[in-house]
Design goal:
Oligomer: single chain
Largest sheet: 9 strands, mixed
CATH superfamily: Class I glutamine amidotransferase (GATase) domain
Number of domains: 1
Radius of gyration: 17 Å
Number of helices: 6
Distance between the termini: 14 Å
CATH topology: Rossmann fold
Structural class: alpha/beta
Strand order of the largest sheet: 4-1-5-6-13-12-11-8-9
Strand content: 25-35%
Length: about 240
């Protein structure tokens, strides 16, 4: 990265069928504007990464300074060896395949990585972990973000970025169950739900279960951008 340049942060996207654009109903790749705006407010330059063939993930990652895996649909349970719960949403197989490949490529390249909601769950699955397919109390009104407090685990990367207990915007009905290899919890909700995970062995890898793009607090993404600005390893 050139001296003085803003770190280039890739953000994965939704893939939706028959989305209406004026008079057109077309398939579309979409990203809520909160994601790029958050990256920009944190000092980065955002670029969208729509689903592609998994063999291209390493080449995409090689062009980035950091990576965000965005929120979205439930991860297909077959990805972590489980039967589908009736309350689990329909699969998003192209996203699962592409984003898992992006995560694996980022980990291999030691690229700074942030998983948001679904992105945190995919990070856990990529490292061999499992998910609880339904919990109560974290998505109380359909289509409306709720808020609840999360408490950092002292000594973690997340706690270094956000020292105090904070109220965060959240909307999810699934959560981390068994942690993936090497991951540790770095924040919890009041009910004990793991709300953030990180990989201490990597340069900068963090997942949060809430949606920082729906908040004014940029500290988590600023930490990603700062790590991305330190070079290919974020070290």
């Amino acid at each position: 990265m050139a001296e003085g340049a803003r770190p280039l942060i890739g953000v994965s996207t939704y893939l939706e069928s028959a989305t209406r654009w004026g008079v057109w109903a077309l398939d579309a790749v979409l990203l809520p504007v909160g994601y790029p705006r958050l990256v920009q407010r944190a000092g980065g330059l955002a670029v969208m990464l729509p689903p592609d063939a998994p063999e291209h993930a390493a080449a995409a990652v090689a062009r980035l300074d950091g990576l965000v895996i965005a929120g979205g649909p439930d991860v297909e349970p077959v990805r972590y060896g489980a039967e589908r719960d009736p309350r689990t949403g329909p699969p998003a197989r192209e996203r699962d395949t592409w984003e898992l490949a992006l995560i694996e490529a980022a980990l291999a390249a030691d690229l700074p990585l942030l998983g948001i909601c679904r992105g945190m769950q995919l990070l856990n699955v990529a490292l061999g972990g499992t998910l609880t397919q339904h919990i109560e109390g974290h998505a109380e009104v359909v289509g409306v973000f709720g808020t609840h407090p999360v408490k950092p685990v002292p000594g973690t990367r997340y706690a270094a970025a956000v020292e105090e207990e904070t109220s965060v915007p959240a909307y999810h009905h699934q959560a981390v169950d068994r942690l993936g290899s090497g991951l540790i919890p770095s924040a919890h909700a009041a009910d004990g739900t793991v709300e953030a995970v990180e990989l201490p062995s990597a340069a900068w890898v963090l997942g949060v279960q809430w949606h920082p793009e729906m908040d004014e607090d940029v500290r988590v993404v600023r930490a990603l951008v700062e790590a991305a600005g330190l070079g290919p390893s974020g070290a």
